[in-house]
Automatic annotation (TrEMBL):
This is Helix-turn-helix domain-containing protein. Coiled coil: none annotated. Pfam families: HTH_3. It comes from the Bacteria. It comes from Buttiauxella izardii.
């Protein structure tokens, strides 16, 4: 199975640019703090749950942060949730997987 980077490298520069733009849009929309606030948890409570300090959690929630998928999984799992990624390839095929 190919990695995301390998699949993206096979695409045209235009597609790569479009993907980068879409990622930036999503990053701006996905504020981790909204997920935590939905469950009425404080940063301190969630930080304790996932085993980090409150300042570290605050950095994770910073909208300018570019979290790794493993960080996102740890955060969402700490909330009791699951991360599912749905990838739509240029040929229209959709592949979803759970982290």
């Amino acid at each position: 199975m190919s990695t995301y980077k390998e699949l993206l490298a096979q695409e045209s520069p235009e597609i790569q640019y479009q993907v980068a733009q879409k990622i930036q849009e999503i990053r701006q929309e996905l504020l981790l703090s909204k997920l935590r606030e939905e469950l009425n948890l404080s940063q301190t409570e969630l930080a304790r749950t996932i085993g980090v300090s409150q300042p570290t959690l605050a950095k994770m929630e910073n909208p300018e942060n570019d979290p790794r998928l493993s960080t996102l999984k740890r955060y969402v799992t700490g909330l009791g949730g699951k991360v599912i990624i749905d990838v739509i390839l240029p040929n229209g095929k959709s592949v979803a997987f759970q982290l």
